[in-house]
Specification:
This protein is α/β, with parallel strands linked by helices and 681 residues long. The protein contains 21 helices and ten strands.
């Protein structure tokens, strides 16, 4: 039988430089920690311990999502313009499958003759699309790192407007997934009516499938999404061209003429300005998803801002052409859509042009595919926005941590959960969810444009007057549309969004307030020199994991020094984009306590520390104490905001022989401390 220890990483101290900072290495093969450059070492993919139930779970995770990916591949996940158009524009492009339908749904309340107004309404929406895209190109130029409406509003208008914009975007992303998947299911039902009773389970399954694809990583999902996205543009574009040719070759070659209605529902009201505005507000769902490119500028290949602006222009041209084409043909063929219909407008157009043949089913397939993939826009935007909010201290910090596949896994799982709840609650019905849609989108549009006015006035960059004029026009236009949507959709369900937005913004503000207060309570001046010397009676070495230099760390180190004469701190670096300041401050602030630093490109914290503990156990007295600060909280809702990084370490240490785990309980804002009795892991 092979020696099981042969596969274990052999940890040994690397070269010790001047001062009290030591880096560690592990000898190959299959080492858990290896040297990279002179004096620098990092954990490898072999650092994860795969024994027992934890090992089985990690094996299942690898099977479903793929093996862990190093931070070095973060740059490889950048998208070209062609792939980014499919990833970020699928939501906007897919709206052509239901935007015209929603316009007709309102117009037919005044009878089938009212469908003649659909084309003028669509033309106004297309003009609005051009205004919004032109305005957002200015945002991309000014904010090449992305962030969208939240970043712009937070920086230029203040915390409250920024959090309102963030809340609007978060709601919009959840609704994007719900509406897109519901419309996808309706496209499937149009082609196969017998599956109508399975709409909700089918919708939930589709959300789970797209979440799984995103958890596997952006490169894998991007490749899978490009083909259906471009296929939809090609197939729907070909369908529209075929329909126009059919009209031009017919006896009535006037494409602008309104056709004989397919049915004549009983009029419920007259054609009024309010009815036209309702239809307009419903059709504005065509603009949902337009802002996704500005939110994800950082995902583009360099030059990021230029590529993002070019992609947004291409998306606008495709969206405008397809939306106007669908509306034009639906109007000419006299297509009517009302509540209770199971066949969508695009399905009726395809059947009118091709009949029920291979071409028709190809159109339905790609329509369902793009609607399914439209949710991917939200699965790219929501986790990224969540990470930005967590970085700024308005969401739990776990939302800023990348998972094993370099994606923000917690954001993906949160979006999945909220979307499933909404689909179940509304029976996976597009018509029932649509009234909630677009309100948050245009609120975000308006706040973003107003914020840019403040920025141009403050910075006066080159060409600021032209940019300010563009954003002024955009702010006025989107504000008017926002109020139209608010008035026309409020009673139909828009009130839910009106109620939800301040609640979410307040929740974000409360989290931000807690983190801000915590930061002030734990702050240690960077110029402070803490002459803490290990002087305790015990020879058992004490290891203190250090996430940051703060008061909790200082108090824990002090308690450790009172207990043992051998105290070492260990700091694990997991984020390549946010380099820690612990290393550069340590020698100045803690000259008498050694620090071990481990770079962890696979973003594991507990496993590298466990490897170091293994090394200490090989030396007399063959026993180790791990002491870490545990922040006490005053309210239950604060528990997910702190101490999350410790859970994995406690799990790994539990069951280790000769390892004592001592949580040092610290209550911020109080000089006293409470300490539980040490428990053996």
């Amino acid at each position: 039988m092979a020696d099981p220890s042969a596969s274990r990483p052999a940890v040994e101290p690397a070269s010790r430089g001047p001062g009290r900072i030591t880096r560690y290495r592990v000898e190959l093969p299959r080492a858990g920690i290896v040297p990279t450059t002179a004096g620098h070492f990092e954990a490898t993919e072999f650092a994860e311990q795969r024994t027992g139930w934890r090992g089985r779970w990690l094996a299942l995770r690898d099977l479903l999502l793929g093996t862990s990916v190093s931070n070095r591949r973060l740059g490889e996940a950048r998208l070209s313009k062609k792939i980014a158009l499919a990833v970020f524009s699928s939501d906007a492009l897919s709206s052509t499958a239901y935007a015209t339908q929603e316009i007709l749904l309102i117009l037919v309340l005044a009878g089938s003759g009212a469908i003649t107004h659909s084309l003028p309404i669509a033309m106004v929406i297309a003009l609005l699309l051009g205004i919004v895209v032109l305005s957002y190109r200015q945002i991309i130029r000014a904010y090449p790192r992305g962030g969208g409406a939240y970043t712009v509003a937070h920086e230029n208008l203040g915390v409250a407007p920024g959090l309102v914009a963030a809340a609007a975007l978060l709601v919009d992303y959840v609704l994007t997934v719900s509406v897109s998947i519901a419309a996808c299911v309706e496209a499937i039902v149009s082609a196969f009516p017998e599956v109508h009773g399975w709409a909700v389970p089918l919708a939930v399954s589709l959300v789970g499938l797209i979440a799984l694809g995103n958890l596997r990583g952006i490169r894998e999902s991007a490749t899978a999404f490009a083909i259906p996205a471009y296929g939809f543009v090609f197939v729907l574009g070909g369908t529209l061209i075929a329909g126009m040719l059919k009209v031009f070759l017919s006896d009535d070659a006037n494409l602008l003429a309104v056709g004989e209605p397919s049915k004549s529902p009983e009029p419920q009201q007259a054609v009024t300005l309010f009815l036209i505005l309702r239809a307009f507000s419903q059709g504005c769902t065509a603009l949902t998803g337009v802002e996704a490119i500005s939110n994800g500028v950082g995902a583009f290949k360099p030059p990021e801002a230029k590529n993002a602006a070019t992609t947004m222009t291409a998306m606008a041209l495709l969206l405008g052409a397809l939306f106007l084409g669908v509306t034009l043909l639906a109007r000419h063929f006299g297509i009517v859509y009302e509540h209770g219909d199971t066949q969508t407008v695009t399905s009726q157009i395809g059947e009118e042009i091709f009949g029920r043949n291979l071409f028709y089913y190809t159109l339905q397939f790609f329509t369902a595919a793009i609607l399914f993939l439209a949710a991917n826009t939200a699965f790219n935007g929501f986790p990224l926005l969540g990470a930005i909010l967590a970085r700024d201290g308005y969401l739990p910090r776990i939302f800023y941590q990348r998972g094993s596949r370099l994606v923000f896994s917690w954001g993906i799982m949160a979006l999945t959960g909220f979307s499933v709840l909404l689909l179940v609650a509304f029976g996976a019905s597009t018509t029932r969810i649509i009234p909630l849609y677009a309100l948050g989108v245009f609120l975000g549009f308006t706040l973003a444009q107003a914020s840019m006015l403040r920025r141009w006035k403050r910075t006066k960059e080159q060409g600021w007057k032209r940019s300010m004029a563009i954003n002024t026009f955009g702010a006025v236009a989107t504000a008017v549309v926002f109020f139209i949507i608010l008035v026309t959709k409020f009673a139909a369900g828009g009130w839910m969004v009106v109620v939800a937005l301040p609640i979410i913004a307040t929740w974000l503000w409360r989290i931000g307030g807690y983190y801000h207060s915590l930061g002030r309570a734990l702050r240690v001046p960077p110029e402070a020199v803490l002459d803490i010397v290990p002087w305790g009676p015990s020879p058992v070495p004490i290891l203190v994991p250090v996430e940051d230099i703060n008061l909790a760390t200082v108090m824990t180190l002090g308690a450790a020094c009172e207990r043992s004469r051998n105290v070492t701190a260990v700091h694990v670096i997991i984020d390549p984009e946010d380099r820690s300041s612990v290393e550069e401050q340590w020698q100045r602030q803690f000259p008498n306590i050694p620090l071990v630093i481990i770079d962890s490109p696979f973003r594991t914290v507990a496993d590298p520390i466990a490897l170091y503990v293994n090394d200490l156990l090989r030396e007399p007295p063959h026993e180790v104490t791990v002491m870490f600060p545990v922040l006490e909280v005053a309210h239950w809702w604060q528990r997910p905001l702190v101490n999350q990084s410790l859970k994995g370490l406690i799990t790994l240490m539990r069951g280790r022989r000769h390892v004592n785990v001592v949580p040092y309980e610290f209550q911020p804002g109080h000089t006293g401390r409470r300490q539980r009795s040490p428990f053996r892991a």
